[in-house]
Protein backbone atom coordinates (compact mmCIF):
# COMPACT_ATOMS: atom_id res chain seq x y z
CA UNK A 1 0.00 0.00 0.00
CA UNK A 2 1.30 3.45 -0.97
CA UNK A 3 1.00 5.91 1.91
CA UNK A 4 2.11 9.14 0.18
CA UNK A 5 2.11 11.07 3.45
CA UNK A 6 3.62 14.25 2.01
CA UNK A 7 1.08 14.30 -0.81
CA UNK A 8 -1.80 13.72 1.57
CA UNK A 9 -0.58 16.56 3.80
CA UNK A 10 -0.56 18.93 0.83
CA UNK A 11 -4.03 17.88 -0.32
CA UNK A 12 -5.35 18.19 3.22
CA UNK A 13 -3.92 21.70 3.48
CA UNK A 14 -4.89 22.98 0.03
CA UNK A 15 -8.03 21.12 -1.08
CA UNK A 16 -10.65 20.20 1.49
CA UNK A 17 -13.06 18.85 -1.12
CA UNK A 18 -10.58 16.28 -2.40
CA UNK A 19 -9.55 15.46 1.15
CA UNK A 20 -13.18 14.69 1.96
CA UNK A 21 -13.53 12.59 -1.19
CA UNK A 22 -10.60 10.41 -0.12
CA UNK A 23 -12.66 9.16 2.81
CA UNK A 24 -14.93 7.40 0.31
CA UNK A 25 -12.02 5.53 -1.28
CA UNK A 26 -10.69 2.22 0.05
CA UNK A 27 -7.82 2.88 2.50
CA UNK A 28 -5.32 1.09 0.26
CA UNK A 29 -6.09 3.50 -2.63
CA UNK A 30 -5.99 6.79 -0.74
CA UNK A 31 -2.23 7.22 -0.98
CA UNK A 32 -2.19 6.82 -4.75
CA UNK A 33 -5.10 9.22 -5.19
CA UNK A 34 -3.39 11.70 -2.86
CA UNK A 35 -0.24 11.60 -5.00
CA UNK A 36 -2.23 12.37 -8.15
CA UNK A 37 -4.13 15.19 -6.49
CA UNK A 38 -0.95 16.66 -5.01
CA UNK A 39 0.65 16.60 -8.46
CA UNK A 40 -2.35 18.51 -9.81
CA UNK A 41 -2.11 21.08 -7.00
CA UNK A 42 1.64 21.55 -7.52
CA UNK A 43 1.36 22.08 -11.27
CA UNK A 44 -1.86 24.09 -11.35
CA UNK A 45 -0.44 26.70 -8.96
CA UNK A 46 2.78 27.30 -10.91
CA UNK A 47 1.30 30.53 -12.33
CA UNK A 48 0.84 31.88 -8.81
CA UNK A 49 4.45 31.11 -7.88
CA UNK A 50 6.23 32.89 -10.74
CA UNK A 51 6.28 36.48 -11.99
CA UNK A 52 6.95 35.61 -15.63
CA UNK A 53 5.91 32.70 -17.90
CA UNK A 54 9.46 31.45 -18.58
CA UNK A 55 10.24 30.30 -15.01
CA UNK A 56 6.84 28.60 -15.01
CA UNK A 57 7.62 26.76 -18.24
CA UNK A 58 10.94 25.66 -16.77
CA UNK A 59 9.15 24.27 -13.72
CA UNK A 60 6.66 22.36 -15.85
CA UNK A 61 9.49 21.08 -18.02
CA UNK A 62 11.19 19.74 -14.88
CA UNK A 63 8.12 17.62 -14.20
CA UNK A 64 7.99 16.46 -17.83
CA UNK A 65 11.63 15.45 -17.87
CA UNK A 66 11.31 13.62 -14.57
CA UNK A 67 8.22 11.62 -15.54
CA UNK A 68 9.39 10.82 -19.07
CA UNK A 69 12.78 9.65 -17.76
CA UNK A 70 11.23 6.49 -16.38
CA UNK A 71 12.72 7.15 -12.95
CA UNK A 72 11.08 5.50 -9.96
CA UNK A 73 12.46 7.80 -7.24
CA UNK A 74 15.42 9.98 -6.33
CA UNK A 75 14.08 13.32 -7.54
CA UNK A 76 14.75 15.05 -4.23
CA UNK A 77 11.13 16.21 -4.25
CA UNK A 78 8.94 14.15 -1.85
CA UNK A 79 5.71 14.70 -3.78
CA UNK A 80 7.39 13.88 -7.08
CA UNK A 81 8.87 10.70 -5.61
CA UNK A 82 5.45 9.62 -4.33
CA UNK A 83 3.96 10.27 -7.76
CA UNK A 84 6.70 8.23 -9.44
CA UNK A 85 5.93 5.36 -7.07
CA UNK A 86 2.26 5.51 -8.06
CA UNK A 87 3.08 5.62 -11.76
CA UNK A 88 5.30 2.56 -11.36
CA UNK A 89 2.94 0.60 -9.09
CA UNK A 90 -0.14 1.08 -11.27
CA UNK A 91 1.65 1.28 -14.63
CA UNK A 92 0.08 4.64 -15.41
CA UNK A 93 0.75 5.98 -18.93
CA UNK A 94 3.50 8.57 -18.80
CA UNK A 95 2.21 10.02 -22.07
CA UNK A 96 -0.93 11.15 -20.24
CA UNK A 97 1.20 13.20 -17.85
CA UNK A 98 3.09 14.62 -20.82
CA UNK A 99 -0.16 15.87 -22.39
CA UNK A 100 -1.36 17.18 -19.05
CA UNK A 101 1.81 19.21 -18.50
CA UNK A 102 1.77 20.52 -22.06
CA UNK A 103 -1.78 21.82 -21.49
CA UNK A 104 -0.74 23.48 -18.22
CA UNK A 105 1.53 25.85 -20.16
CA UNK A 106 -1.64 27.70 -21.16
CA UNK A 107 -2.11 28.74 -17.51
CA UNK A 108 1.04 30.85 -17.64
CA UNK A 109 -0.27 33.28 -20.26
CA UNK A 110 -3.23 35.64 -20.56
CA UNK A 111 -4.39 34.41 -23.96
CA UNK A 112 -8.12 33.57 -23.95
CA UNK A 113 -9.65 30.37 -25.28
CA UNK A 114 -10.93 31.27 -28.78
CA UNK A 115 -13.74 28.69 -28.70
CA UNK A 116 -15.52 26.27 -26.39
CA UNK A 117 -13.82 23.54 -28.39
CA UNK A 118 -10.44 24.87 -27.29
CA UNK A 119 -11.67 25.02 -23.70
CA UNK A 120 -12.87 21.42 -23.89
CA UNK A 121 -9.52 20.30 -25.29
CA UNK A 122 -7.75 21.96 -22.35
CA UNK A 123 -10.17 20.46 -19.82
CA UNK A 124 -9.75 17.08 -21.46
CA UNK A 125 -5.98 17.11 -21.10
CA UNK A 126 -6.07 18.37 -17.50
CA UNK A 127 -9.09 17.51 -15.35
CA UNK A 128 -10.44 14.69 -17.52
CA UNK A 129 -6.99 13.13 -17.69
CA UNK A 130 -6.67 13.30 -13.93
CA UNK A 131 -10.02 11.53 -13.52
CA UNK A 132 -8.90 8.80 -15.92
CA UNK A 133 -5.60 8.35 -14.08
CA UNK A 134 -7.44 8.13 -10.77
CA UNK A 135 -9.75 5.50 -12.28
CA UNK A 136 -6.71 3.47 -13.38
CA UNK A 137 -5.67 3.21 -9.75
CA UNK A 138 -8.77 1.03 -9.33
CA UNK A 139 -8.51 -0.85 -12.62
CA UNK A 140 -6.39 0.06 -15.62
CA UNK A 141 -8.42 -2.09 -18.00
CA UNK A 142 -11.74 -1.12 -16.47
CA UNK A 143 -10.95 2.60 -16.71
CA UNK A 144 -12.20 2.52 -20.31
CA UNK A 145 -15.71 2.46 -18.88
CA UNK A 146 -15.28 5.89 -17.33
CA UNK A 147 -13.98 7.60 -20.47
CA UNK A 148 -17.13 9.51 -21.47
CA UNK A 149 -17.90 10.33 -17.84
CA UNK A 150 -14.38 11.69 -17.39
CA UNK A 151 -14.69 13.78 -20.53
CA UNK A 152 -17.86 15.58 -19.51
CA UNK A 153 -16.94 15.74 -15.80
CA UNK A 154 -13.60 17.28 -16.69
CA UNK A 155 -15.33 20.06 -18.62
CA UNK A 156 -17.99 20.74 -15.96
CA UNK A 157 -15.47 20.82 -13.12
CA UNK A 158 -13.17 23.08 -15.18
CA UNK A 159 -16.04 25.50 -15.73
CA UNK A 160 -16.77 25.46 -11.99
CA UNK A 161 -13.09 26.10 -11.22
CA UNK A 162 -12.99 29.06 -13.61
CA UNK A 163 -16.14 30.53 -12.05
CA UNK A 164 -14.76 30.24 -8.51
CA UNK A 165 -11.45 31.84 -9.52
CA UNK A 166 -12.95 34.85 -11.33
CA UNK A 167 -11.83 37.43 -8.73
CA UNK A 168 -8.21 36.28 -9.06
CA UNK A 169 -8.10 35.83 -12.83
CA UNK A 170 -9.90 39.10 -13.60
CA UNK A 171 -7.53 41.00 -11.30
CA UNK A 172 -4.56 39.88 -13.39
CA UNK A 173 -6.28 40.52 -16.73
CA UNK A 174 -6.94 36.88 -17.58
CA UNK A 175 -10.19 35.80 -19.27
CA UNK A 176 -10.81 32.05 -19.22
CA UNK A 177 -14.38 32.12 -20.52
CA UNK A 178 -14.18 31.16 -24.24
CA UNK A 179 -14.41 34.11 -26.61
CA UNK A 180 -17.14 32.56 -28.78
CA UNK A 181 -19.31 32.11 -25.70
CA UNK A 182 -18.63 35.70 -24.61
CA UNK A 183 -19.63 36.94 -28.06
CA UNK A 184 -22.84 34.90 -28.07
CA UNK A 185 -23.69 36.45 -24.69
CA UNK A 186 -23.09 39.97 -26.04
CA UNK A 187 -19.88 40.56 -24.09
CA UNK A 188 -16.31 41.35 -25.11
CA UNK A 189 -13.15 40.39 -23.23
CA UNK A 190 -12.66 44.08 -22.40
CA UNK A 191 -16.17 44.33 -20.94
CA UNK A 192 -15.66 41.13 -18.99
CA UNK A 193 -12.60 42.62 -17.32
CA UNK A 194 -13.99 46.12 -16.84
CA UNK A 195 -16.81 47.40 -14.68
CA UNK A 196 -19.57 46.49 -17.18
CA UNK A 197 -21.39 44.35 -14.67
CA UNK A 198 -24.48 43.60 -16.79
CA UNK A 199 -22.48 42.26 -19.74
CA UNK A 200 -20.20 40.24 -17.45
CA UNK A 201 -23.12 38.68 -15.60
CA UNK A 202 -24.74 37.60 -18.85
CA UNK A 203 -21.50 35.93 -19.88
CA UNK A 204 -21.16 34.22 -16.51
CA UNK A 205 -24.71 32.85 -16.72
CA UNK A 206 -24.08 31.55 -20.25
CA UNK A 207 -20.83 29.88 -19.15
CA UNK A 208 -22.64 28.41 -16.16
CA UNK A 209 -25.34 26.91 -18.42
CA UNK A 210 -22.60 25.43 -20.62
CA UNK A 211 -20.96 23.82 -17.60
CA UNK A 212 -24.25 22.53 -16.23
CA UNK A 213 -24.98 20.85 -19.55
CA UNK A 214 -21.76 18.83 -19.30
CA UNK A 215 -22.51 18.12 -15.65
CA UNK A 216 -25.88 16.64 -16.60
CA UNK A 217 -24.30 14.53 -19.33
CA UNK A 218 -21.75 12.80 -17.13
CA UNK A 219 -24.31 12.09 -14.44
CA UNK A 220 -26.55 10.40 -17.00
CA UNK A 221 -23.67 8.02 -17.83
CA UNK A 222 -22.61 7.24 -14.28
CA UNK A 223 -24.52 3.96 -13.94
CA UNK A 224 -22.12 2.36 -16.43
CA UNK A 225 -19.16 3.01 -14.09
CA UNK A 226 -18.33 0.39 -11.43
CA UNK A 227 -19.08 1.80 -7.97
CA UNK A 228 -15.55 1.60 -6.53
CA UNK A 229 -14.22 3.54 -9.54
CA UNK A 230 -16.68 6.36 -8.95
CA UNK A 231 -14.28 7.70 -6.31
CA UNK A 232 -12.30 9.11 -9.24
CA UNK A 233 -15.12 11.45 -10.22
CA UNK A 234 -16.26 12.51 -6.74
CA UNK A 235 -14.54 15.94 -6.69
CA UNK A 236 -16.29 16.83 -9.95
CA UNK A 237 -19.67 16.08 -8.41
CA UNK A 238 -19.51 19.33 -6.42
CA UNK A 239 -19.56 21.51 -9.56
CA UNK A 240 -23.33 21.74 -9.29
CA UNK A 241 -22.97 23.81 -6.11
CA UNK A 242 -20.87 26.35 -8.03
CA UNK A 243 -23.43 26.57 -10.82
CA UNK A 244 -26.20 27.17 -8.30
CA UNK A 245 -24.15 29.94 -6.69
CA UNK A 246 -23.36 31.54 -10.06
CA UNK A 247 -27.01 31.68 -11.03
CA UNK A 248 -28.03 33.27 -7.73
CA UNK A 249 -25.17 35.74 -7.37
CA UNK A 250 -22.79 35.95 -10.38
CA UNK A 251 -20.45 38.32 -8.55
CA UNK A 252 -20.31 36.38 -5.29
CA UNK A 253 -19.59 32.85 -6.51
CA UNK A 254 -16.45 32.26 -4.48
CA UNK A 255 -17.94 33.39 -1.17
CA UNK A 256 -21.22 31.51 -1.68
CA UNK A 257 -19.50 28.21 -2.49
CA UNK A 258 -17.31 28.64 0.59
CA UNK A 259 -20.49 28.62 2.68
CA UNK A 260 -21.41 25.04 1.67
CA UNK A 261 -21.00 22.71 4.64
CA UNK A 262 -18.90 19.52 4.62
CA UNK A 263 -22.10 17.64 5.45
CA UNK A 264 -23.79 18.74 2.23
CA UNK A 265 -20.66 17.82 0.28
CA UNK A 266 -20.51 14.41 1.93
CA UNK A 267 -24.15 13.85 1.04
CA UNK A 268 -23.37 14.69 -2.59
CA UNK A 269 -20.43 12.29 -2.59
CA UNK A 270 -22.57 9.54 -1.06
CA UNK A 271 -25.25 10.00 -3.70
CA UNK A 272 -22.64 9.90 -6.45
CA UNK A 273 -21.20 6.66 -5.09
CA UNK A 274 -24.67 5.16 -4.91
CA UNK A 275 -25.46 6.32 -8.42
TrEMBL record:
Q: Which SUPFAM superfamilies match?
A: Terpenoid synthases (SSF48576)
InterPro entries, per the entry: Isoprenoid_synthase_dom_sf, Squ/phyt_synthse
Q: Which domain of life is it from?
A: Bacteria
Name under which the protein is recorded: Phytoene synthase
